[in-house]
User: Fold ATP-binding protein from Devosia limi DSM 17137.
Amino acid sequence: MKVGIDMGATTGSAPALLDLEELLATRLLVQGNSGSGKSHLLRRLLEQSAPWVQQCIIDPEGDFTTLSEKFGHLVVDATRTEAELTRIAARVRQHRVSVVLNLEGLDVEQQMRAAAAFLGGMFDADRDYWYPVLVVVDEAQLFAPAAAGEVADEARKLSLAAMTNLMCRGRKRGLAGVIATQRLAKLAKNVAAEASNFLMGRTFLDIDMARAADLLGMEKRQAEQFRDLARGHFVALGPAISRRPLPITIGNVETAARSTSPKLTPLPDAPVDAAELIFTATAEEATRPVVRRPAPPPPPSTNELLAQLARQRPEVEGPPPTLFPEIDQAERDAIIDAIMAELLEDPDASFRTVAVLYQDFLVRCRIRRVPGEAPTLSSFKRKLAVARVAPDSETAGSDAWQQALTMSEALTDDVQGVFLVLAQAAVTAAPCPSDATLARLYGTHSASRARRLLTWFEERGLLVVRLDFRNNRVVAFPDLGCETTPGDPNGPDTMVDLRPAAE
Assistant:
């Protein structure tokens, strides 16, 4: 069923219709400086789509709580524990209730933790409750910052992982992300890049205009138009609304935000005796206790500092017992290897960035309750390259394969996987992979880039490429003393899993 959401009017006064089903599949990014009309746009979208789809609004300022009066949204006060918010989010998906998560009154770090817990509960809901939900996140740069700020690193990672899951993996679980931000430059790129629909409003900074023009496929000289956009005017692009940049004007809304834009108000008439009003306490103030902060203690003297240093330090207590069952290192490594295998089962994994795969890996580790510290990003890159090959036990124990692993450690992270796949084919006397297969492993669709990578390996003396009389390619490894069997370089990418089948 195709549902067109009326967002307002285009330049020619024609209605600007937003395909709701397409929006649920392709997500939306809204950008504009403060006062450009982002919240008005989101309110229009929510009001028009309320009869058709379940909604969840992450509201840092409490502006959208007024939707409950006319459209029946349930307001969830975020002043709860993270466990409570996670359980509430699961019940929201189960009973298909539209909600507003009110984060008003919390500091930034508490808002990030509360939003991460709530989004995590919706993301981890049972498969039976994966109904479509429009998830609107206002001020998304707070929850998916491009760089570390003054908040704790743990809170930032939790919030960024939740936003990444929403925009990258939420579609298959019925979650359609709609994110709004004042500054594109402050929003994490891997979160913004997953949106296919864009509504760009007024902005003044060159870096934000350049990113907006780049997302809309416009030339840099055309980016100047974003400075001239009036309040409530946006440039739209995306499969859900227009295949070409389209100026639109957002229509009126039925509800109003609790906060309003500043308006000039005439000053009151000057009182007869202003000094008496200001310096004389009222009866209520006279009865109110005066709370004074105690004076800070004086700094310790040099003798006191030396005495403290001379005291014997107490013994450091051991780490507190973990809540999870203890397992040995071998079992932990086996669980991590299984998670890596699950991660690579996705056919799109080869074309995702390492950062996105790493965030997905961390989430899966938390779901599987892997104890201890998660592998670092550099360690993950190495595991990713090896996991894409994962030879059988006989091959893995051979001297040639161990030497190939040692040779790959001197290569950069992005080419280790391709080198190991070629080395495995040589050690097992398998046909040489095609250009399409090598390109997929390299994370590209270009066969010419795969061929240039083979030339790069050959120039460094790692391998030798030759063609037989049928123009099939053979890759030989002089240091390993083995070579692949002939393979068609122009063959298709068979998407054959290079790992051995499970017993």
Summary: The first strand starts at residue 4 and ends at 10.
